[in-house]
Specification:
Number of domains: 1
Shape: globular
Number of helices: 4
Number of strands: 7
Strand order of the largest sheet: 2-1-5-6-7-4-3
CATH superfamily: Electron Transport, Fmn-binding Protein, Chain A
Largest sheet: 7 strands, antiparallel
């Protein structure tokens, strides 16, 4: 089952630069991780280093949560539960125009080139929302 994201929540998602992805380790411990993402056509796309814990976690348990930081008082939050899948041979991030438009400068700012970024982050996580909780601030 896919959850609908309303227009106001989508607008908030589109303006965010970083979200948190929470996956669950095999021992049951939640593993929150800040991530870069794009949201298009009802699906979140995240490029990942295939050796990271989040990728290992999703391979065992595809249930994840995404969230955006709240405002100072805990309002204006967005939490999205979803099903994740690992795409082992995705198109490179450099061929995903929306991703490069959003994070091209960020790649440079972390001391990488588009080529070195693609070499390291050569796995893709796709998250399909199944439930959405949000509250306006």
């Amino acid at each position: 089952m896919t959850a609908e994201i309303d227009a106001k929540t989508e607008q908030r998602i589109q303006k965010e630069y970083v979200m948190w992805l929470t996956s669950v380790r095999a021992d049951g411990m939640p593993q929150p991780t800040p991530i870069w993402f794009i949201y298009e056509n009802g699906v979140f796309t995240i490029y990942a280093d295939p050796t990271t814990q989040k990728v290992k976690n999703i391979a065992v348990n595809p249930k994840v949560a995404l969230n955006i930081n709240s405002d100072y008082e805990g309002g204006d939050f967005v939490v999205i539960m979803g099903e994740a899948e690992i795409i082992a041979s995705p198109p490179p991030a450099t061929e995903t125009s929306a991703y490069i438009a959003k994070y091209g400068q960020g790649i440079i700012d972390i001391g990488m080139t588009p080529e070195t970024f693609v070499q390291r982050y050569n796995s893709m996580i796709r998250v399909t929302p199944t439930r959405v909780r949000s509250m306006d601030g």
